[in-house]
Amino acid sequence: MSATEPSKPTPPVPAPPAAPLPRKVPTPAAVAPAAAAASAASSSDAAKWGRVTDDGTVEVREGEDWRVVGQYPDGTPDEALAYFVRKYEDIAFKVHTLEQRHQAGGASAADLVKQAGHLLAEATDAAAVGDLAGLRERLNALTSSLSEATAQEAQQAKELVDKAISDRTALVERAEEIAARDLSKVQWKQVTAELGELFDAWQAQQQNGPRLSKGVSQQLWKRFRDARGTVDKARRAFYSELDDTHKTARDAKTRLVERAEALAPRGVDGIPAYRTLLDEWKAAGRAGRKADDALWARFKAAGDALYSARAEQSAAEEADSAPKIEARQALLEEAKAVADEPNIKRARALLTGIQRQWDEIGRIFPRDKERALDDRLRVIEQALKAREEVDWKKNNPETKARANDMSSQLLEAIEKLEAELAAAEKSGDKKAAKAAADALEARRAWLNALGG
What we know:
The chain has a 4-stranded antiparallel beta sheet with strand order 1-4-3-2. The longest helix is centred in the C-terminal third of the chain and has 52 residues. It is elongated and about 185 Å long.
């Protein structure tokens, strides 16, 4: 450094300050007026609260005593005081900001008390010039005013923790209730959804709820985790067994499909065997939806091929049956003459000839058409049979003998009654005449019924 270059002043050496507390800087609009007023007051009161000795030592007055806060050897006394006043203003600014936060509301009382404690420590034996005792009194007053709010917050926090414990205990108990069920009979889709909802609720409470003590939290989590583990173990066992069951059914159905596909060369003759395979398929159990669908598609295709062959055969048979149907319809027209023939023997001969031709025509397909034609011929047959029964009863020798004997008896009775009626009329016995006339009328009706 040259002889003409002015020397730089030695920076002031303050006394070791207390550890500073990080502060939240409020918005300039909110604190600027108060900070400016505090700065002006502190500067004007610098001489009241501080002094500088000849060697640049700066002291601050606290009560009746003076305390050394540092040295500013290369500056003027005003510069020395101004430097340490700014230190005081920094602390005063923090105190003012803390008071503003308390007045604005919304801040945690416990948090404000904690910050007030840090500022109180910073204002004690601080390397600053100003009304440090006044700052400490303001901080103590703030702490005192926050004591009740702190207690309320602590009570609210305890209630929130108690509720959180209750809520998580309810989740644990619901999970344990699920684990205590007969897990061999549950619907696993429903149980998995229920347990998933409980776990989501647990995570939501853990993330958004109050922090629980480590002991309580670990105890509840262990119960919840054990319940989930029990359910998960049973679910894995169920699906493992289900996989084995599906595999067995899948193997069995695969073999059934192969046997069904092997029936294709047999055509219509393979249908009875296919129906037997279908019964076995129903008894084989489930193989899982995807496998079942794929295997059933193949099994059904094999059956469709057989039934398609039968449909083709039926169509061919029906085509061959068209002339036969016409022939039988023609015979039915001829058979109408059976009812018109008065001679029963000739009627029977006519019907017998029609029946012989009917059988010679052969089978007709489809069967429902054959049955309809047979039913029409059967009506004609039954009508003739009824006529034959009536004729037989009428011309039966035994029946005729009995009728003749009865007729003779009735004729004798009629002659006797006629004589009695004539005698009663001659004698004028009306009562006897009426009785004889009634009896005579009855006997004549009987005789008429016998054909006499």
